[in-house]
Amino acid sequence: MTNGSFNIGIILGSTRVGRVSPQIGKWVKEIAEKRGDANYEVVDIADYNLPFLGTTDGSEPGIAAWNEKIDSLDGFVFIVQEYNHSITGALKNALDLAREPWNNKAAGIVSYGSTGGARAAEHLRGILGELLIADVRVHPTLSLFTDFENYTTFKPAELHFNNVNAMLDQVISWSGALKTLR
Ligand SMILES: Cc1cc2nc3c(=O)[nH]c(=O)nc-3n(C[C@H](O)[C@H](O)[C@H](O)COP(=O)(O)O)c2cc1C
Question: Which of 75, 165, 170, 177 is 20 to 30 Å from 132 by CA-CA measure?
């Protein structure tokens, strides 16, 4: 479906077998698509078979496809899970494997963990600054204890719905502003 003039990627930060991130990505996409202000798509790092940076000559088609995908997007929503008080290695590697395609774009963060993934999200903000990605203030934080059943089945509290929309409001307005720089 085509809506609006922006392409926003909802990037799943985890790739492990048994991950819950696809449930959160789907939920954000469903909320986003009701807005009719952009094209929203889930972007799954796992689909690209990315090698660990520097362990190959960089000619894998997945690296080129990953860069093309990021280049095609005007903004991002990072679905961020907390691993050892930071982001996943998979997300860091995926961030490191592109450079200019990230630049001068906006991003929002939706995180989860025992403390809402707040520590991972704050680490991500530092990385985004280096990549010239403008991260917005509103940041929905999901609790493993109260927004999931058995830490695996996503059952978000109602209050998060408004937060996701407020975050998307900011991502869309900054995506428009930053498009003028590219
Ligand atoms: C290697 C590893 C480290 C983790 N460290 C933390 C942590 O520091 N803080 C936290 O709140 N949750 C931590 N968790 C729990 C994860 O946030 C939880 O398993 C979450 O579901 C992971 O996202 P995923 O299912 O999409 O992979 C950790 C999980 C893993 C696998």
Answer: 165
The two most distant CA atoms of the chain are separated, in Å, by 47
> Please, what is the Cα angle at 83 between 157 and 91, to 5 degrees?
95
**Ligand 1: centre distance to CA 14 (Å):** 9
Q: 65, 48 in Cβ contact below 8 A?
A: yes
Which ligand 1 atom lies nearest to the CA of residue 81?
23
- Give pTM, 2 decimals: 0.97
Q: Which atom of ligand 1 is nearest to the CA of 115?
A: 11
Protein residues whose CB sits closer than 6 Å to any atom of ligand 1: 14, 16, 19-21, 81-85, 113-115
CA of 84 to the centre of ligand 1 (A): 7
Task: Read off the tokens for 172.
Answer: 């869309």
Burial class (CB in 10 A: 0-12, 13-18, 19+), 75: buried
Q: What structural domains and CATH numbers belong to the chain? A: 7-179 (3.40.50.360)
Q: Which residue has 């690209």 as its token pair?
A: 48
